[in-house]
Design goal:
Layout (H helix, E strand, L loop, with lengths): L1 H14 L6 E8 L2 E10 L2 E12 L3 H10 L8 E3 L2 E6 L1 H8 L7
Length: 103
């Protein structure tokens, strides 16, 4: 994560912004979107939480994933055509190996 400090600093400088105290990284894998939310704490970036979204048609698979790792499937919220949930870093470690079921 040390290299992340330098990289974020360089990006901020390039676009003419001051260094942020929060940032998110987004990945799209087909219909699956993963967001990683980072917060700067004492000059180091720490993972705050992870977000995961899928098309509404895959909401049951998302509920099954949450249930499989012991989380409440009611923790899903929906907007128009997508279903969303978030994970702590510990829960993400549990869910990580099951995410391929959503692809």
């Amino acid at each position: 994560m040390q290299n992340l400090n330098l990289l974020i600093s360089q990006v901020a400088k390039t676009i003419g912004f001051s260094e942020p105290d929060r940032i998110s990284l987004s990945y799209q894998l087909g219909e699956l979107c993963i967001d990683i939310f980072l917060t700067k704490e004492q000059n180091a970036w720490e993972i705050n939480n992870f977000g995961l979204s899928v098309p509404i048609k895959k909401i049951q698979e998302l509920k099954d994933l949450l249930d499989a790792i012991g989380l409440d499937p009611e923790a899903i919220y929906c907007e128009e055509d997508r279903a969303y949930t978030s994970f702590s870093e510990e829960d993400w470690e549990l869910a990580n190996s099951l995410i391929t079921t959503l692809l």
